[in-house]
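Researcher: Please translate sequence to structure tokens.
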Amino acid sequence: MSFHASREAFARALKVIPGGVNSPVRAFRAVGGDPLFLARGAGAKVWDVDGNEYIDYVGSWGPLILGHAHPKVVAAVQEAAALGTSFGAPNLAELHLAELIVAAVPSVARVRLVNSGTEATMSALRLARAYTGRSKVIKFTGCYHGHVDSLLVQAGSGATTLGVPDSPGVTASVAADTLLAPYNDLAAVEALFSAFGQDIAAVIVEPIAGNMGLVLPEPGFLAGLRDVTSRYGALLIFDEVITGFRVAYGGAQELYGVLPDLTCLGKIIGGGMPIGAYGGRADIMEMVAPAGRVYQAGTLSGNPLAAAAGAATLELLKEEAVYRRLEEAGRFLADGLEQAARRAGIPVQVHQLGSCVTVFFTADRVVDYE
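Model: Translation complete:
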């Protein structure tokens, strides 16, 4: 295989783009080598600029649950683009997508469309702080919620340790409002509420952790978060940017039967176009401007191209047996990886749920980031 064209493109990119990429995960540093520059995709395959063909297990990091260039999604985007790419005014495409989301996600009575998952979590935190009149937020070590300053923190020396910045440019004062706990550790969460309960606005969690590799919630963990937040008057925020419309049509909250106060979405709801959303209880969401005083805005929010691609994707996901087929395919892959590792004598833990699969190279059970 030749990679000459990709290497040439990367050399050019290094001269005009920091690190040569527009998102760090694309740099290949975790796996070695230089990034591939992709030219096209169709279904489960992609081709790079050198003409090499690959099976794609990444799916643009989550949005492409239907594969690349699904004909109905492409047609929806083409039709929308022919009518205008942006209006800066309400449009029927965004309304249709919002109606689909509200109908699908159990906890969402109102939804606001934004442009990325980061915008969704940032806006949900602002709203939670406004609703409760409190400042602190609990997040879990290893859970990623976008590049929001207050969420780019890592754990300190104990469960009740205040966050410290995980990136230059994030100030200590901003990070100090973020409290950390290990994923799946209800006792640590209870300890945080015992120490800071009257100051905690919300708990934000990936209901199924995906950014540290696939880590499932232990039995009772999500229900326990629902209970402790309710007791202390804090909000529970599910970051379903990854799990929304992937593990079930109604997301992880449908799968586990635990309803948060606010939900953050992205990826799949844009069908491969830039999008995000946050939604939840009507009384909370009605605080968002212009209905209320919590300000949030976006020039391209509800963009008709993204809304059309997202709506086409969600309509297709309604089809009978889609999630059963995803589970069967994911299980087939996980079983094959497990068997291959066993034959090679390599200890692994293979986690799988639907189309999400992670191989952990350890003999120990994986329940958190550590």
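Researcher: Any highlights?
Model: The chain is about 35% helix and 15% strand.
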